[in-house]
């Protein structure tokens, strides 16, 4: 039976996903795109809009979470009941860690991954066909709820945890457009379906990759109709190149990212399998696996650095944040934070324990083997 250790490309895909997610988050926080989105209601007729390039990385990350979870259940090294308990507890830990950064990045990957893992025992045992029906339902629901104007709609940038009541939390999680968990849960479910049906490496463009190409094209073609149905998205004018800032409505965004993921993941799995057959390639993949196995810690360290930097720079003087607007300052700063996180992980594994801090916490609280 295949496992995530046998599919070498998973380590590469995970590292790509977490590095891309981290840098995308840095771009949003330091460039203050969140503030632009909050002050942009006159043109934006809906809140359920997504960046097709920036948001590919968290979508890929959540897909891989569902993918590897399915493989863990297939391995049968632990009972299903124990595994479900492990993943539920893991979800609670990640969600709690994500709340630490909700002030400047409301729906960070820790919160979304935590929600996905926590609710996964509800449907992990379902067969592929039922999961496909669930996926289609979640996609439609996310589009509908993201366009509803409901009285429990909270602030677009986040939620006040101290003063929040049950209705505010429901509004934040399901009706809050960009920060709703529903579109992101769909990628986690997609990963579960993929893991149940397409584990074997069958070439760089297998039939599932061709299907993905068709789905991605469908997402592009559907977008104009979504503009007519939900309203034009408009231009942000915060990037020097319009191509970087392309955004889609929820439905077409999910189609586009689903297709792109179904093309990228099999290709990476195929080439990683080939690379692993060479001495240099095997060493490189082994090095990548060391960091991809510490993915949550890498993200956590960057979030912590960003929180400190945000507090120091913003610190009562709103104009100082504009110092980070130029790309020649934004990119080096983001890369420096990521580099520091890599060095901290290396130091921790060498001097303290072979488990990175967040992964150590997940292992000891959830009782999982990873």
Q: How would you describe this protein?
A:
With 370 residues, this protein is mainly α. The protein is 66% helix and 2% strand. It has 14 helices and two strands, in the order ααβαααααααβααααα. A two-stranded antiparallel ribbon has the order 1-2. Helix 4 runs antiparallel to helix 5. The protein is globular and about 55 Å long.
* Beta strands, count: 2
Which parts are unreliable, with pLDDT below 50 for 5 consecutive residues or more? 1-5, 34-46, 151-159
Specify Rg, calculated over alpha carbons: 20 Å
Helical content class: 55-70%
> pLDDT average, as an integer?
76
What is the rounded distance between the termini?
19 Å
Shape: globular
Strand content: under 5%
Q: Report the major sheet.
A: 2 strands, antiparallel
How would you classify the quaternary structure? single chain
Q: Which class best fits the helix and strand makeup?
A: mainly alpha
Question: Count of helices?
Answer: 14
Largest beta sheet: strand ordering: 1-2
In short:
The chain is mainly alpha-helical and 370 residues long. The chain has 14 helices and two strands; from the N terminus they run ααβαααααααβααααα. The protein has helices at 9-30, 33-38, 56-75, 80-99, 109-119, 128-147, 166-175, 182-197, 207-230, 250-275, 279-292, 295-314, 327-351, 357-366, and strands at 49-51, 247-249.
In terms of topology, how is this protein built?
Blueprint: H1 9-30, H2 33-38, E1 49-51, H3 56-75, H4 80-99, H5 109-119, H6 128-147, H7 166-175, H8 182-197, H9 207-230, E2 247-249, H10 250-275, H11 279-292, H12 295-314, H13 327-351, H14 357-366
Antiparallel strand pairs: 1-2
């Amino acid at each position: 039976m295949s496992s995530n250790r046998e599919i070498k490309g998973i380590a590469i895909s995970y590292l790509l996903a977490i590095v891309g997610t981290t840098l995308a988050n840095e771009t949003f926080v330091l460039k203050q795109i969140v503030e632009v989105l909050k002050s942009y209601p006159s043109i934006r007729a809906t809140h359920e809009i997504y960046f097709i390039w920036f948001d590919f990385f968290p979508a890929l990350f959540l897909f891989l979470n569902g993918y590897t979870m399915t493989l863990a259940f297939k391995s049968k090294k632990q009972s299903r009941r124990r595994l479900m308990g492990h993943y539920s507890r893991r979800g609670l830990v990640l969600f709690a860690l994500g709340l630490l950064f909700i002030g400047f990045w409301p729906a960070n990957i820790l919160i979304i991954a935590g929600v996905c893992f926590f609710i996964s025992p509800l449907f992990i045992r379902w067969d592929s066909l039922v999961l496909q029906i669930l996926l289609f339902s979640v996609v439609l629901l996310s589009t509908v709820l993201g366009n509803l104007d409901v009285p429990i709609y909270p602030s677009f940038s986040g939620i006040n945890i101290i003063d929040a009541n049950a209705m505010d939390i429901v509004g934040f999680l399901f009706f809050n457009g960009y920060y709703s968990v529903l579109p992101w849960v769909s990628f986690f479910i997609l990963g579960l379906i993929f893991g149940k049906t397409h584990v074997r490496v069958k070439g760089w463009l297998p039939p599932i990759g061709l299907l993905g190409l068709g789905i991605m094209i469908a997402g592009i073609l559907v977008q104009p109709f979504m503009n007519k149905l939900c309203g034009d998205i408009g231009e942000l004018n915060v990037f020097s190149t319009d191509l970087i800032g392309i955004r889609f409505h929820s439905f077409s965004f999910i189609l586009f990212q689903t297709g792109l993921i179904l093309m990228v993941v099999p290709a990476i799995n195929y080439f990683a399998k080939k690379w692993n057959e060479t001495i240099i390639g095997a060493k490189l993949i082994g090095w990548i696996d060391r960091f991809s196995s510490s993915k949550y810690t890498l993200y956590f360290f960057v979030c912590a650095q960003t929180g400190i930097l945000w507090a120091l720079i913003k610190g009562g003087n709103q104009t100082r944040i504009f110092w980070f607007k130029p790309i020649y300052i934004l990119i080096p700063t983001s890369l420096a934070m990521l580099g520091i996180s890599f060095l901290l992980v290396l130091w921790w594994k060498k001097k303290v324990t072979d488990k990175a801090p967040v992964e150590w916490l997940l292992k000891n609280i959830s009782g999982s083997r990873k």
